[in-house]
Amino acid sequence: MRRALPIFLALLATLLAGCGEDGEDSTRVRGDTLTIYASLPAHGLDASAGDDAAVGMRHALADAGRRAGGRSIRFVRMSSTRPGDRTWDPGTVEANADRAAGDPTTIAYLGELDRGASAVSLPVINREQILQVSPADALTSLTQTPPGRPRAGPERYYPGERETFVRLVPPDLVAARQIVAQLREQGTRRLAIVTGDGIADHELEAMVLGLIGTGQPRTITRVAAPSADDDPERVTELAEELVEADPQAIVYAADSEPRAHAALAVLATRLPGTTLIEGPALASRGPGTDGEAACAHPGVPAESALSRAARRRLETIRHQGGGDLGVEALLGYDAMRLTLAAIDSAGPDRLDVVRAAKALEARYQVCG
Are 357 and 43 within 8 A, CB to CB? Predict the structure, then answer.
């Protein structure tokens, strides 16, 4: 009996250890194949951007031999838009996240490409402790509390209590600080903000106002931006409202809709002495000369704002892809490359992959 007791205890310890490794609380993905899902727009204004990002992701996977961490990698692209949509659809994005979170072979989720869309998918993905890598979502509140919105901190996106999100672009807070610095440098006392209706638009507006505080400018006028659903006369009405307000500077904090460019052109004509400051949705595609410029424009950077190494990598992807791919192809390539590197480092364990990706994040960011 005495000799049997140590054997029994050893067996019990082995069983308990097994439960800890592969039981309900384990985040280890079992099987020979790991799945990486990607949520990208396939319709509307950003369809080509989504296609380019997918090309980059597939090329990164091919370069790795479709393997990482000793396992085969299965790649599944999902659409964040519906046929007929102009921009990403919240219900579709949530359904994408549900599909990835419900798959026991999922090791990572690449998305979202659109600003603010990760606010929908991240809580779903985080509950399962799955790594989420966004190529271009610059929404500040995903990783820190934005100035002007003290109740919009990142904790609401992490029901799993661990941060599982990595992105390749700097947050919109970088742009908000630059906007306020420019306003102060110019001594702006009368400001107009053209606001959009998206979560990222509202957050940018709140950050600019929060950073301004009680200093300059003294007078602030808020005007709603025209959308594609508005009557074409809305652009003219917007100009009239701003002419009446007579601002010294206008911050265009709305999304990069076709009507936005029309509105900016009209404003430049009607208010020639007024400074027009584009928000990150527009400015991210403005001119730049080096990697530092990319940091100044959250979201998808202008190609000229990329580092030389990044530009060379993009040209290689274009050559392999057989087309004139946009910068999104590079962002997709690097999002997949970071993910595969994390899996190689950590193996098929979701939380270990998250930790590895967080350690690698700075190497893959646009402004790195």
Answer: no
Q: CA separation (Å) from 343 to 55, 274, 315, 335? A: 20, 51, 26, 13
Mean pLDDT of the 334-360 span: 98
| CA 288 vs CA 3, 251, 303, 306, 350: distances in Å | 76, 20, 8, 8, 37
Q: What pLDDT is recorded for position 28?
A: 97
Least Cα distance to 182 among 256, 111, 247, 278 occurs for 278
pLDDT tens, 145-154?
A: 999 998 898 9
The vertex-283 CA angle with 146 and 256, nearest 5°, equals: 85
Break the chain down into helix, strand, coil percent, rounded to 5: 50, 15, 35
- Cβ proximity of 57 and 321 under 8 Å: no
**Dihedral (C-alpha) 328, 330, 336, 341: value to the nearest 10 degrees?**
-150
CB under 8 Å to 306, separation ≥6 — which residues?
Answer: 291, 294, 314, 327, 330, 366
What is the 8-class DSSP label of residue 368?
Answer: -
d(CA 147, CA 144): 9
